[in-house]
């Protein structure tokens, strides 16, 4: 669905996701309306019974058609229940399909949004946004919407019956209903209409803070910072609590009025009935019996309208959340895609600012990695290394300048072509909860088992394979099968080796690795980059001494560039980093020797 449909109300927007099942929803609502009308019939039958009894009074045996009306009341009640059941069947079927379509629309859209967006948004938040909201609409379409139709029919019928029986008593029923509608709009309108979105946001914050708190417990314990870490979690609990209390208080008076007025109809009806009976005889009494029976039904229907109103607010919020995802612009695809001629990578006068960031992360950056060469990116944290590397597989599009692969702008390459050209290995390796085989095959689905085994071997993963109970077919991440950070890195390298793309972009991170793993990862790196065009983010300067060029990125710009030797001779930033690195390496060796 298009975001341009935004102005439609939430139910109409939801129904655009229903596709062919929209008719089923309409049918369900119509049946629910019919069921509401049928549900009124037994009351009319009872009125006929009462009239028959009073007419025959005192010789009740003479009463006409009592049994017939009794049966008719029963059949109408059963018919109403059966039609309502059919209505719910229709709306449930349509609701499940609609929720499925909403999830599909979001998932389909996410495939086309910039990869950087997926990286930046927490996957948990996105899942909640898609899944919970689709679930919320299920309840709305399956139950509340058909009930709403039924609930609206009843007051309309009440207005009709007002004229059919006794208009004075009808009015006594109708006035409380009108007052309750007024109180309902007060509860659901104004600030309270905005409450739901604020309330949802407060719940999301609370859940994010709780997760953050639980995740931080080990660090907190080590540094004895319990009070500080609890502070922001506590603040979010208090925010939520204040919001919920304010809402409850603001609804207090109208809600009390709503319930009192609805249940207090008898206060009007019975004295009025008595008054009218004294002058009108038994026919007025029959009408009074009808209205006494009919009044609780009106109250139930008004309550249903209230719940449906609440569900509509939820549906509004669900549609708004989905819109947020659909509003993320997909990366434009070129209508006439070009092909990369060769494996050279070039950044030409690139300036890039992250969405919503104030300052650019890269400013006028230019460099070239010739086919088969290795270029290393080094520099202080926040200098722009990851940003520069992520522009090559088009995680984001640049605002100024160009990123070229084999002479073609990455924006002009078909996505498939770009993905075939580049393999990237970043620090936060993601392994799926599936077999090791499928995890590696994600890089090349048509690869044979032998090719996967070969890639694992080249990525120094033989020891990992040996310890897994079902070898290649072992599911990762379940039933105690967990891989350490260093092991996960090697599996990610096996993936990249299997992909065998001519360009490799990698973040040489060994942060998770113990010395043994570090050595294995280093060997796997060497296999991966042999004969490839490589852009490498280097954290340990020892690994890049032989790079064809080293770029020192600082504050989003290239501060220095050259070979290892030339940069040392220049005695600049790189030289200082190298001296620091040497000192820390010696300190580490010294410490190890002392143990
Ligand atoms: N998703 C993002 N949204 C907004 N700003 C970002 C995003 N990612 C990075 N930045 C900012 O862009 C700048 C460059 O960050 P980048 O991660 O590229 O640096 P880096 O040199 O790779 O750092 P490190 O060595 O710590 O990984 C930093 O100021 C950072 O705060």
From TrEMBL:
Q: Which residues form the ABC transmembrane type-1 domain?
A: 26-314
Q: Does the keyword Cytoplasm apply?
A: no
What residue ranges are annotated as transmembrane? 24-49, 69-95, 145-163, 169-185, 261-282, 288-307
Where does this polypeptide localize?
Cell membrane
Task: Spell out the SUPFAM superfamilies in the cross-references.
Answer: ABC transporter transmembrane region, P-loop containing nucleoside triphosphate hydrolases
Chain ranges of the ABC transporter domain? 345-580
Q: Which Gene3D superfamilies match?
A: ABC transporter type 1, transmembrane domain, P-loop containing nucleotide triphosphate hydrolases
Per the record, membrane topology reads: Multi-pass membrane protein
| CC terms in the record's Gene Ontology section | plasma membrane
Gene Ontology molecular functions? ABC-type oligopeptide transporter activity; ATP binding; ATP hydrolysis activity
Q: Which UniProt keywords apply?
A: ATP-binding, Cell membrane, Membrane, Nucleotide-binding, Transmembrane, Transmembrane helix, Transport
Q: Name one Pfam family in it.
A: ABC_membrane
Q: Which domain of life is it from?
A: Bacteria
- InterPro entries attached here? AAA+_ATPase, ABC1_TM_dom, ABC1_TM_sf, ABC_transporter-like_ATP-bd, ABC_transporter-like_CS, P-loop_NTPase, Type_1_exporter
Give the chief site where it resides. membrane
Q: What is this protein called?
A: ABC transporter ATP-binding protein
């Amino acid at each position: 669905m298009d975001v341009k449909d935004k102005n439609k109300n939430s139910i109409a927007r939801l129904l655009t996701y229903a596709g062919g099942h929209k008719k089923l929803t309409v049918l369900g609502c119509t049946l629910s309306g019919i069921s509401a009308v049928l549900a009124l019939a037994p009351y009319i039958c009872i009125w006929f019974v009462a009239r028959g009894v009073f007419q025959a009074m005192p010789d009740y045996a003479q009463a006409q058609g009592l049994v017939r009306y009794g049966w008719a009341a029963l059949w109408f009640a059963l018919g109403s229940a059966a039609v309502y059941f059919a209505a719910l069947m229709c709306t449930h079927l349509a609701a499940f399909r609609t929720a499925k379509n909403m999830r599909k629309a979001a998932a389909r859209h996410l495939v086309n949004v910039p990869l950087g967006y997926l990286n930046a948004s927490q996957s948990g938040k996105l899942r909640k946004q898609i899944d919970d909201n689709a679930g919320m609409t299920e309840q709305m379409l399956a139950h509340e919407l058909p009930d709403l139709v039924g609930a609206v029919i009843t007051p309309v019928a009440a207005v009709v019956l007002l004229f059919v029986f006794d208009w004075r008593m009808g009015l006594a029923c109708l006035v409380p209903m009108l007052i309750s509608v007024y109180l309902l709009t007060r509860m659901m309108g104004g600030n309270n209409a905005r409450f739901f979105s604020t309330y949802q946001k407060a719940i999301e914050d609370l859940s994010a803070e709780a997760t953050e708190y639980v995740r931080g417990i080990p660090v907190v314990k080590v540094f004895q910072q319990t009070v500080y870490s609890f502070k922001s979690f506590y603040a979010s609990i208090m925010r939520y609590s204040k919001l919920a209390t304010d809402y409850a208080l603001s609804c207090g008076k109208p809600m009390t009025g709503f319930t009192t007025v609805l249940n207090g109809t008898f206060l009007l009806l019975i004295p009025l009935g008595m008054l009218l009976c004294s002058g009108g005889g038994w026919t007025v009494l029959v009408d009074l019996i009808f209205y006494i029976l009919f009044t609780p039904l009106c109250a139930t229907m008004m309550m249903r309208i209230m719940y449906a109103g609440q569900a509509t607010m939820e549906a509004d919020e669900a549609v708004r959340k989905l819109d947020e995802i659909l509003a993320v612009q997909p990366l434009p695809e070129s209508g006439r895609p070009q092909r990369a001629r060769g494996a050279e990578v070039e950044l030409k006068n690139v300036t890039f600012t992250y969405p919503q960031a104030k300052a650019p992360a890269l400013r006028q950056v230019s460099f070239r990695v010739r086919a088969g060469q290795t270029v290393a990116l080094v520099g202080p944290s926040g200098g722009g290394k990851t940003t520069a590397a992520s522009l090559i597989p088009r995680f984001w599009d640049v605002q100024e300048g160009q990123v070229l692969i084999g002479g073609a702008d990455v924006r002009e390459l078909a996505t498939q072509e770009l993905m075939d050209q580049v393999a990237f290995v970043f620090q936060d390796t993601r392994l799926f909860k599936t077999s090791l085989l499928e995890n590696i095959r994600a890089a090349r689905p048509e690869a044979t088992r032998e090719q996967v085994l070969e890639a694992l071997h080249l990525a120094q993963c033989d020891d990992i394979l040996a310890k897994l109970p079902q070898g290649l077919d072992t599911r990762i991440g379940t039933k105690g099968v967990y891989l350490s950070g260093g092991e996960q890195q090697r599996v990610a390298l096996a993936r990249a080796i299997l992909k065998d793309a001519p360009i490799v972009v990698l973040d040489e991170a060994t942060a998770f690795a113990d010395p043994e793993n570090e050595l294995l990862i280093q060997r796997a790196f060497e296999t991966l980059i042999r004969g490839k065009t490589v852009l490498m983010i280097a954290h340990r300067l020892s690994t890049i001494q032989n790079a064809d060029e080293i770029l020192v990125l600082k504050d989003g710009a290239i501060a220095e560039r050259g070979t290892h030797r030339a940069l040392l001779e220049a005695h600049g930033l790189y030289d200082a980093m190298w001296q620091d690195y040497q000192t820390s390496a010696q300190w580490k060796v010294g410490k190890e020797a002392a143990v």
